[in-house]
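Incident log, support desk, overnight shift.

02:14 A customer reports that sequence design results differ from what the structure should imply. Their input is reproduced verbatim below. On-call engineer (initials T.W.) acknowledged and began investigating.
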């Protein structure tokens, strides 16, 4: 499905019935990363997945990428769908966006799931790497970005045994426009430190991490969970950064247990 939101066409899916759960994807992927969650959870919940601007089947304008803009796109799409309150699941960059969305619209949140993400801002070194990566995307294209990202996205177990998953992720990355990839990098580079927000998250929160996550290491994610009052914390074994794709049953089970039903 598509809707005109904030001047561009946004693609999304809306399946199932019941309590709405909104899923925000990682960099530099698209909403198809949530297909196992749609399949596994749509009999119990209303599942909304969104191609963020610059990704998948959404438009990829040349400019206007920021976490604030992604949050506004999400809010306006939910208004369009008549959803005033939902549970939100964000993986990695999706989690960064949820921190921004919560700062702006806390009353939208019924519950929060932060998967394989972090609250801290980029270090000065990480900011330099974002810029180099943007230059690589611009000069060498999305295939090179896929080569660089795949070993960070998937854990060693999946890299060794899940050829199909490697190809599925490569396809998601290489079908994104360069403007979207570079836009994400700029948006993430300038994100603020959300650590001070953690103790003010006044909603039920679940934090998930893949045991083999290299991009958001387990210890750092666990430490983030400790700062969120009452947060539940789950480790997904034999999964890397995209734990929802690497171990979909375990990921779905923890969401189902957390949200009840
Ligand atoms: C992601 O998966 O969204 C990225 O690893 C986030 C990041 O690069 O900080």
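02:41 Re-run completed on a clean worker. Output:
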């Amino acid at each position: 499905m598509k809707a005109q939101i904030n001047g561009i066409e946004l693609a999304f899916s809306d399946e199932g019935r019941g309590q709405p759960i909104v899923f925000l994807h990682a960099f530099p992927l698209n909403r198809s990363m949530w297909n196992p969650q749609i399949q596994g959870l749509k009999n119990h919940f209303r599942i909304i997945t969104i191609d963020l601007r610059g990704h998948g089947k959404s438009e990829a304008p040349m400019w206007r990428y920021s976490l604030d803009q992604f949050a506004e796109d999400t809010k306006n799409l939910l208004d369009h769908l008549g959803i005033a309150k939902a549970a939100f699941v964000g993986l990695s960059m999706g989690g960064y966006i949820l921190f921004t969305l919560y700062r702006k619209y806390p009353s939208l949140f019924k519950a929060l799931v932060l998967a394989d993400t972090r609250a801290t801002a980029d270090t000065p070194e990480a900011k330099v790497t974002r810029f180099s990566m943007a230059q690589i995307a611009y000069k060498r294209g999305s295939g090179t970005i896929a080569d660089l990202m795949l070993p960070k996205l998937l854990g060693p177990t999946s890299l060794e045994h899940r050829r199909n998953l490697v190809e599925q992720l490569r396809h998601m990355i290489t079908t994104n426009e360069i403007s979207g990839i570079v836009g994400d990098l700029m948006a993430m580079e300038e994100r603020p430190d959300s650590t001070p927000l953690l103790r003010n998250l006044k909603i039920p929160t679940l934090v998930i991490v893949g045991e083999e996550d290299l991009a958001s290491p387990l210890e750092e994610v666990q430490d983030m969970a400790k700062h969120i009052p009452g947060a539940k914390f789950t480790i997904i074994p034999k999964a890397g950064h995209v734990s929802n794709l690497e171990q979909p049953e375990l990921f779905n089970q923890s969401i189902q247990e957390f949200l009840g039903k």
